[in-house]
Amino acid sequence: MAVSNEMTINLVVLGRTQTGKSAAGNSLLGSSDFESHRSPSSVTTCCSLGCSCRISGIIRRNGCELALRVRVLDTPSYPHSGLSKEQVRETVSSALAHHFGEEGLHLALLVLRADLPLCPDESDHAIQFIQELLGPTWKDFTAVLLTHADKIEEAGFSEEAYLHSASSTLLSLLSSVQHKYIFLDNQKSIIKEERAIVLRKLLNFVRRNNYQVLLLKHNKE
Length: 221
What we know:
Order of helices and strands: EEHEEEHEHEHHHEH
Distance between the termini: 30 Å
CATH superfamily: P-loop containing nucleotide triphosphate hydrolases
Structural class: alpha/beta
Largest sheet: 8 strands, mixed
CATH topology: Rossmann fold
Helix content: 25-40%
Number of domains: 1
Radius of gyration: 17 Å
CATH architecture: 3-Layer(aba) Sandwich
Shape: globular
């Protein structure tokens, strides 16, 4: 992951249609690599890899500052308005193996809308899909990204109050991934300082996992 004075983290964003998945990927990259807009159908139909510029001031190791690069794989949603589950899984599996087959995956970000309740069926489908993609150690390599955090703030909830009032389904999911979660504001483009906070949290998740990577091989059924 670290080469001389540079570190790269590999991320994949997963989630349902209109959760803000592609927008979250753009926020992490500090770019507009991924198409993202309101639509009556699923916008993303294929996987796409984006890579940030060198980011300074985020991480230090052994007393030295390292430049950070973030690589994000955007994926079609599941469920998808135009693709079957098997098509989405095949597309994402192939892209993971192609882009991260050598370096490995550091984190899968399950994108959920903070302003919508998480139902048991939706959670079960998401977990099953991630398990099929990542295998039995999926919990170690998965974090939850709660988008549209501006909506819950408008409703008068702090992050702590939101979690206190959250459904048992969401709380169980957060517990299963060792409480690796981040709130993200979708109202406006993420500013530099906010992006730095989010990236530091992601790096902390990677550090807690001892900088391990998940090596993915694509096996055709």
